[in-house]
Design goal:
Layout lengths: L2 H6 L3 H10 L121
């Protein structure tokens, strides 16, 4: 059984509880492509390297989460809390981050090509020359 098939049989509440119960909080490395975790409390969860392509993470609490080097292409984060999240090296190509909170989120090395950032609070996000923001869609170019 693949990780995706296994996840398909458990609820968002079980995923959330497992993440909170993991004292070592080791990386999950799961294939969660297209999963709906909207509204879940995934505070400080470790999803390092996970495939969350096209996932619905609207209104999800990912405060302090480790999303280092995952595939987040086309994922939906409308209204999500990503404050203090580690998004280093993440692929956010075409992701919808509209209305999300990215204060103090680490976006160094992230690829935001074509990402929607309308109404996103990210004034104090951590970016550098390795952050690709060439074709973002925000209030300045919408």
């Amino acid at each position: 059984m693949t990780d995706y098939q296994r996840l398909d049989t458990i609820s968002a509440e079980e995923i959330e509880q497992n993440a909170l119960d993991d004292s070592d909080n080791q990386p999950i490395h799961l294939d969660l492509k297209g999963i709906d975790l909207s509204g879940a409390n995934l505070r400080e969860v470790n999803l390092e390297g996970a495939n969350l392509e096209g996932a619905n993470l609207n209104q999800t609490n990912l405060r302090g989460a480790n999303l280092d080097d995952p595939n987040l292409e086309g994922a939906h984060f409308d209204g999500a809390n990503l404050v203090d999240a580690n998004l280093r090296g993440s692929s956010l190509i075409g992701a919808d981050l509209s209305g999300s909170y990215l204060d103090c989120a680490d976006l160094r090395g992230a690829n935001l090509d074509g990402a929607y950032l309308l109404g996103t609070n990210w004034e104090v996000a951590i970016i550098d020359e390795t952050t690709n923001m060439e074709y973002i869609i925000d209030e300045d170019n919408y």
